[in-house]
Amino acid sequence: MQKPRVLLADDSDRILNVTSRLLGADCEVVATAGNGDCALRAVNQFKPDLVVLDINMPGTDGIQTARQLQKLGPTPRIVFLTVQEDPDIVQVACAMGASYVVKARMYSDLLVAIKEALAGRVFVSSSLMDRHTRLGVR
């Protein structure tokens, strides 16, 4: 089975390195980007199956980047990896069809979220779901 091709976008080099190592055995990390504009260019160049996006990035943030990706046509699946736990932001992400992982749970949730996203399902970190069950997603 071919590994899914993943693009990572975060303004922290440390997070990019940790995430890349975490995914290394299960995914092919085709590129990394430090902001949304670079992520959009990299998506056009590398055609990943999935994009892992931070929400808080300089310039074009993760939500804006995801919206722009959706306008481009066939969109790679999106997983937000963020420190944001605001229920309104979680709801916006889920309404876009994106999965949502908080960085504090990345070791337990990120690979699960990627598998779910690639299967066409929305995943939200359980720590958020405990508080925000009104979202109606897993």
Short description:
The protein is 42% helix and 18% strand. It has 138 residues and is of the alpha/beta class. It has one domain (5-135): 3-Layer(aba) Sandwich (Rossmann fold), CATH 3.40.50.
Structure, explained:
The protein has 138 residues and is α/β, with parallel strands linked by helices. The protein has one domain (5-135): Rossmann fold. The chain has helices at 13-23, 36-46, 62-71, 87-95, 106-118, 126-129; strands at 5-9, 28-33, 50-53, 77-82, 99-102. The protein has a five-stranded parallel β-sheet, with helices on both faces. Helix 3 (62-71) links the parallel strand 3 and strand 4 (77-82). Residues 131-138 have low confidence and may be disordered.
Stretches with pLDDT under 50, minimum 5 residues: 131-138
Q: What is CATH's topology name?
A: Rossmann fold
By CATH, the superfamily comes out as Response regulator
Number of strands: 5
By helix and strand content, what is the structural category? Answer: alpha/beta
Which sequence of strands runs across the widest sheet? 2-1-3-4-5
Provide the helix percentage. 40-55%
String of helices and strands: EHEHEHEHEHH
CA gyration radius, whole angstroms: 13 Å
Beta-strand level of the residues, as a percent range? 15-25%
Q: Describe the main β-sheet briefly.
A: 5 strands, parallel
Give the overall average pLDDT: 90
Please indicate the count of domains: 1
